[in-house]
Amino acid sequence: MSEIFRVLATATAVLALAVPAGAAAATPSTAGDPVAACAIDYGWVQVRPLVYIGSVAIHNTGTAVINGWTLSFPLREPQRVISSRTATFASLSDPVIAHNIESNGVVAPGSAVTVTFAASGVGTAVTDFTVNGTACTLTAP
């Protein structure tokens, strides 16, 4: 088995832990409502020299329910999303555009959803995130 397949197998195993058994297939909801306020926790773990696992927690800090979301953030080349089971991706690099899946599209006020993904390259700090076009506050650099 080549090194890239070992890395992808490891990344897939890590991502599988983030999706409950029996979760719905990756089906994005329709365009989300505008978001009044949101906050983001972002982090990553380097699992191989050129592969990392990223995690973005979207916190609804507003008073209305988020019903369907689109997350956008910059990810500079050569970094590129290679897999995820917690979102569908319309764009894999700068900018990354991710849409909710059926099981995580509704975010109640005071709640959060987490998007995990495997990416190529070396993980770096990302500070600019939007949800449904609204800029979010970064809570953990």
TrEMBL record:
Pfam families recorded: CBM_2 (PF00553)
PROSITE patterns per record: CBM2 (PS51173)
SMART domains xref list: CBD_II
Source organism of the structure: Actinoplanes ianthinogenes
Protein name: CBM2 domain-containing protein
Keywords: Signal
Residue stretches making up the CBM2 domain: 31-139
Keyword Signal set for record: yes
InterPro entries: CBD2, CBM2/CBM3_carb-bd_dom_sf, CBM2_carb-bd_dom_sf
Residues spanning the signal sequence: 1-25
